[in-house]
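S2.1 Query sequence (Glycoside hydrolase family 15)
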Amino acid sequence: MNVPTREVDTGSEPGPAPAPGSPDEPHPAAPDDAAGPASSGTGRLPRRPRRGRWGRRAVTAAVTLTMMAYPFLLTDPRSPLANAGEPAYIRLYSNGIGLGPDGAPELVATGSTPPYLAGSRVLDPGPDDPAAQAEARALAAETQAWLDAGTIPGEGGPYGDMVRDALLDIRALLLDDGASVAGWSARWRYVWPRDAAFVAAALATTGHTEEALDVLGFLRRVQHRDGSFEARYLPDGSGPPDDRGIQTDGTGWVLWATDNVVRQLDPGDQADAVRRLRPLVDRSTARALELTDRRGTLPPPSSDYWEVGESRVTLGTAAPLLSGLEAAGRLYGVLAAGGTPTAAADAARAAEATAERAAQLRAAIEREFAPRFARYTDGRERDAASAFLLPPFQPTPLTGALDAWRASAAEMARPAGGLAPGAGWKDDGISWTPQTSLYALTAATVGDTDAARGWLTWIDSHRTPSGAIPEKVLADGSPAAVAPLSWSAASVVLAVAELERHGV
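Output structure tokens follow.
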């Protein structure tokens, strides 16, 4: 693992997005009277109305606003201009990630074959530097020992190699302070609470519970006192890299992950783990209760995994909060089973309060989003948040949610075989592995093994030459954008573990 750094090597990182081409200039206005002026009866032409300065200013303002809005219309996934139906091209930013002899991550350039030492992401420094060679081999042996200390779901089966590579990438992206960065390309070298939550769950599921607790410990340290989370954080924990602001789903995801990690521990160790994370649990639970303590119970609007501003509540915000409240009830239940009588009684009351609010929020989601369970309560276009209404995110599927989830998969299908983030996402032909692996996880958990294997096989066949899972796959099947991506890697690990648990 690696010392976090804020210095960014942008050698393999894409530069700023090119400015969109200027729109065609408007056609000049026709003359006021194309047929010529009518006679006034005096032999003089009638005076043409003068355009005042306010008219000119109005035209200038309209043109300025149009030019300002043009990039938004092209790039926002909800824009009609972004849904032109033309396949998009995004290059692959890197072949994968490697570790130097000192454990520092570095990007593997596209088109190159990474000289990994066997069973690791450690790069072979070559024979010219014996000291570096010795350090690299020691680090590779440490990596192998780490793998051996846990499990590799699917080992020996069709997905064993993919899961092994996913775990190696997750570990390479995990820094010594518990910061689990989304990727190593510059614009992904941050910690998203959502992505880190999935990583913690994957680490715990494969027996690496101490590292999972470290990831949650990082989130505990950066969390605001009111229980909220920024959309993303610098890996040194000093704060957010920008002004994206609070993203509500992080609160729910962190509680869900904490419950997942705790349940992987021996029963005798669970209460101690919850106490270790008690500030994180208490603040997150209080935040979830506050957000849902309102008429109708649904939380206020917030950006979600689409990462765009919202003026309406989305299923992608409400469903993770429900997951978090359900998880909080179980976590307080662990504390209620032990400790002093007073502490146990307090925990029991907290468990009861969160369970009651979870039931209210569940009913509100069923009331406002059913039967289609679309992105918004208008019931129009579904998105991948449909999966958040099913196990492993909820103890049982919400009424009607299983059918809605199955329908959403067909609506989100892309030409290359994967899924888009939603049916209303821009129609550019690109498949996203975070959502495809998410659906593989949900399918495996609910027992739809054929669908789970289909999506996992597709992901496996679209990895980069180094074995990394890319964020995107183009319409022609080419891997694209950042690789590896920790969220996708974690979801693949969890999905294969679920298949294994079901005996598949």
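The chain has two domains: 87-179+413-504, 190-407. Confidence is low (pLDDT under 50) at residues 1-51, 69-74.
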